[in-house]
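ok, trying the design again with the full structure, not the truncated one.
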């Protein structure tokens, strides 16, 4: 193949690159549809930013929410802001741009940040399931199990694990040579669409990507399902009120998990083959889930709703005092 021997992907040879930028095909090439998508996704992005920032503000400002559950919820909100920002602003701008391009190094940066915050979301959701398991199945030991030090450690490990995953994923992709192909059939730089442009044998890299991304998604999803199965069995001996409250909290979490993990597993737990459906499926975990998270966790969570009411009432009372 032009520019490199297939073995150069893993040999000591220097990687040859003739590509300085990539071109996105985006979600649609129809001008009218692009304008509609521009308005829709701009609205989605505003909802993501406002909703998650509101959760962060509420959790940090209300001492009653300084608990492990809301500590991890604030981590999740921060992740959602950063995660969606890795792809949404560029995608929204491209809807009204004639030329949908991204530089070679811009593509590397986008892939790294996307997988860093995406993997962080996977690990944070998994830790949140463990927190619910500890709270419901071991209520008397909960404060000991989920101490401040333990919460800090779990959050730190989540971020460090995500950093390692993203570094490996990006390195595996961009140590390959890119000769002439520039057109990415997607709306952001993701592994499978970019690997299709490499002018080298990507078989081994594809297998490692499945192991790195697909197995992480599937493994954490199975851990989550196991946690909730144990929780459901433990609720049989509880009172009706305890069951209702626990199921409400876990139901919110399980809704988020389903919307996020199922599309991720569909995309990453397979060889480097792309389908027309992939771009639509990707929208779920890049945009829809970060938008739904604040809505689900506020509309179905009495503590957060009450904290928001206290926050707004305090804000209005301060304004009244200033007027006087």
């Amino acid at each position: 193949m032009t520019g490199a021997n297939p073995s150069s992907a893993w040999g000591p040879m220097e990687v040859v690159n003739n590509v300085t930028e990539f071109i996105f095909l985006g979600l649609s090439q129809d001008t009218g549809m692009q304008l509609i998508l521009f308005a829709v996704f701009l609205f989605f992005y505003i909802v993501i930013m406002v909703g998650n920032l509101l959760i962060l503000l509420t959790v940090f400002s209300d001492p009653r929410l300084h608990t492990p559950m809301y500590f991890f919820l604030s981590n999740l909100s921060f992740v959602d802001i950063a995660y969606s920002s890795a792809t949404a602003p560029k995608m929204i701008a491209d809807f009204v741009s004639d030329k949908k391009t991204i530089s070679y190094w811009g593509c590397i940066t986008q892939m790294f940040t996307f997988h860093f915050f995406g993997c962080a979301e996977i690990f944070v959701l998994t830790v949140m399931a463990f927190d619910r398991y500890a709270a419901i199945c071991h209520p008397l030991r909960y404060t000991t199990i989920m101490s401040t030090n333990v919460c800090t450690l779990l959050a730190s490990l989540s971020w460090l694990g995500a950093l390692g995953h993203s570094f490996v994923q990006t390195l595996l992709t961009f140590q390959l040579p890119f000769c002439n192909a520039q057109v990415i059939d997607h709306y952001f730089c993701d592994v499978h669409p970019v690997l299709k442009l490499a002018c080298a044998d990507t078989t081994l890299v594809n297998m490692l990507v499945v192991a790195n991304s697909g197995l992480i998604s599937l493994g954490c999803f199975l851990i989550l399902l196991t946690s909730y199965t144990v929780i459901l069995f433990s609720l049989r001996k509880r009172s009706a009120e305890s069951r209702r409250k626990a199921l409400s909290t876990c139901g919110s979490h399980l809704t988020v998990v389903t919307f996020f993990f199922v599309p991720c597993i569909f995309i990453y737990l397979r060889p480097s083959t792309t389908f027309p459906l992939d771009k639509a499926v990707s929208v779920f975990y890049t945009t829809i889930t970060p938008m739904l998270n604040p809505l689900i966790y506020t509309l179905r969570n009495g503590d957060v709703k009450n904290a928001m009411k206290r926050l707004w009432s305090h804000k209005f009372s301060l304004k009244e005092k200033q007027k006087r």
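Keeping the full-length input from now on. Strands lie at 21-24, 101-103, 183-184.
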